[in-house]
Amino acid sequence: MTDNGKPIPETAPSSDLSLDEPGDRKSRKRRAWRQLKRSRLAIPGGVIVVIFIVVAIFAPLLAPSDPYKNDLSKTLTTPCAAHWFGTDELGRDILSRIIFGARLSLLEGLFSVFLAMLIGVPLGILSGYLGGKTDTVIMRLIDILLAFPGVLLAVAIISILGPSLVNAMIAVGVYTVPMFARLARGSTLAVKEEPYVEACRASGMSNLRILYRHIYPNISAHLYVMATLRVAIAILTAASLSFLGLGAQPPSPEWGAMLSNGRNYLLIAPHLVVFPGLAIIFLVLGLNLFQDGLRLVLDPKTVDR
Amino acid sequence: MLTFLLKRVLYLVPVVLGVSVAVFLMIHLIPGDPAMIVAGMEATQEDIESVRRALGLNEPIYVQYFKFISRALVGDFGTSFRTGRAVSAEIGARYFNTLQLGLTAILVAVLFGGFTGILSAVRKYSVIDNASLLASLVGVSMPTFFLGLVLMLIFSVTLGWFPLAGKGTWLHIVLPAITLGTPSAAVVSRMTRSSLVEILDQDYIRTARAKGLGEFVVINIHAIRNALIPVVTVIGLQLGYLLGGAVVTETVFAWPGIGRLVVQSILARDFPVVQASVLILAVTFVLLNLITDLLYGVLDPRIKLQ
């Protein structure tokens, strides 16, 4: 953003979650932290998420063996000292595969939500800010996307693009667009009526600049809370697609794909299904718990739940 | 009521038209030559040509759409590439199987979620309340395919109470319905609890108690109906999840529904079946949403006025 000489009113930095509280940044941060602790489960949730992130980053150092290496002398071993989570039908170490799978799941969640925000947020802000015909057209398009029930939209997109991990992430991203578009629109409608936006307009600021400097920073907190929730849902959805054979393909250590493969051995080696399943549950549960705390920080009114 | 109904129905027209265009365009959005991709890797030039003719891809796009929609309106979706049978025949029975599974799952969600929700609200902060909070959190965090496989492992393989998969007696639907309904039950339970907790704080509840009514009557006659409105909203929102989620649950339990058909058809590149199934599920969803909206009117007469 180039400065045209006029002083720019300062707005809350977008990373700060407490919106309309007075006081300097430090005390606001302290307050946010206090609220986060109040949710009781948010901190454990955050810890779980951080553990998964660390595992994903340091996967090559943490994994006891190569996640792709077959060892046909040790197929379908039950959990033991050498293989904590056992081995699969090709003798691959399941713990190592789950550790590397954390990378794929986090990537699925983050990339698809990033894509959804990239498309959905500008659409929603424009729709809310401009109103009129633009609003009608954008929202009708969003309504059409929402007419496809649940994961079916993602499934339909895969049927066009073809099954693969990247296409699954794109499909989940598009499937998530309506949620961000609607949230961004609603929040923009609320912020747009604020006196400071009117003041900006009166002082001759361009629409684009108002949107970027004033509207977006003030609705971003809501968007981040939504993003945390949607990352959890995106991970579940992408794993479902991989389970159906529409996402990550074997031999990729994607958790959903591992479960799909392990299904064939359910009767003789249930650990092939149990461990990837638990991995998904813990990661998604962690994100959900953390999200709950974030919501409290944002909206302290929701005390009694 | 009639204007309300009419407005809602009119609003649906552009959405349904938009959905039909989107579904129609699916085949044209395939990167590359759709006829070549649909015909498959080892197709000869003639195969590709015959596919092109079968799909009508030689004609201008608006003619294609017009033909597509006028045939779809009378239930003609062409022939399945995979089986050579009429698409409508492939879908027919499967559609009702999916509806049957979906409705049973709603029943599971409402009964189980409603019951635990009411219990949690009445016994706020008790062991039951905390346990149901934890169960709900796990319920929404668990992939349905994992839940399905675990239920299958415990109740079919180990205990032998229910059949492993497929469709036959009423026993076949139990595990799939619980699998599909559980995440919704978790959401319904939380919503029922928070809604009922709020209602129980209202003055008219205090009045009901003050005039000496028993707790049972207060909860069941005075509180539940008012607590029901947000719960119906949530159930309405869950319908999409249930219809879409059927894709996964049906695959796990080999339930002969339309969701499993979609997945099989995508993997087999059987496009007419994919298009028809997606269109039918989307239209069903739109109609179910309409019904939910009308249900509000019945539950809360104030809504009709808006």
Topology of this structure?
The complex is a heterodimer of chains A (305) and B (306).
Chain A: H1 25-38, H2 42-57, H3 59-62, H4 94-130, H5 132-146, H6 152-161, H7 165-192, H8 195-202, H9 207-243, H10 255-262, H11 271-298
Helix pairs in contact in A: 1-11, 2-4, 2-11, 4-5, 4-7, 4-9, 4-11, 5-7, 6-7, 7-9, 9-10, 9-11, 10-11
Chain B: H1 2-29, H2 34-39, H3 45-55, H4 61-73, H5 87-122, H6 127-141, H7 144-158, H8 171-200, H9 203-210, H10 215-252, H11 258-267, H12 271-299, H13 301-304
Helix pairs in contact in B: 1-12, 5-6, 5-8, 5-10, 5-12, 6-8, 7-8, 7-10, 8-10, 9-10, 10-11, 10-12, 11-12
Give an account of the 3D structure.
The complex is a heterodimer of chains A (305) and B (306). Chain A is an all-alpha fold and 305 residues long. Chain A has a single domain (38-65, 93-298), classed as MetI-like (MetI-like fold). Chain A has helices at residues 25-38, 42-57, 59-62, 94-130, 132-146, 152-161, 165-192, 195-202, 207-243, 255-262, 271-298. In chain B, helix 5 packs antiparallel against helix 6, helix 10 (215-252) runs parallel beside helix 11 and helix 10 runs antiparallel to helix 12 (271-299). The longest helix of chain B is centred in the last third of the chain and has 38 residues, at 215-252. Chain B is globular, with a radius of gyration of 24 Å.
Supply database-style keywords.
heterodimer; A: mainly alpha; MetI-like fold; elongated; B: 306 residues; mainly alpha
What's the gyration radius of chain B in Å? 24 Å
Largest sheet composition of chain A: none
Q: Could you name the CATH homologous superfamily of the largest domain in chain B?
A: MetI-like
Query: Which blocks of ≥5 consecutive residues of chain A have pLDDT under 50?
Result: 1-22, 300-305
Portion in helices of chain B: over 70%
Number of strands of chain A: 0
- Average of the residue pLDDT scores of chain A: 83
List the secondary-structure elements of chain B in sequence, H or E. HHHHHHHHHHHHH
CATH fourth-tier homologous superfamily of chain A: MetI-like
What proportion strand of chain A?
under 5%
Q: Categorize the overall geometry of chain B.
A: globular
User: What structural class results from the helix and strand content of chain B?
Assistant: mainly alpha
CATH C-level class of the largest domain in chain B: Mainly Alpha
Task: Give me the count of strands of chain B.
Answer: 0
Biggest interface, residues from each chain: A-B, 46 and 50 residues
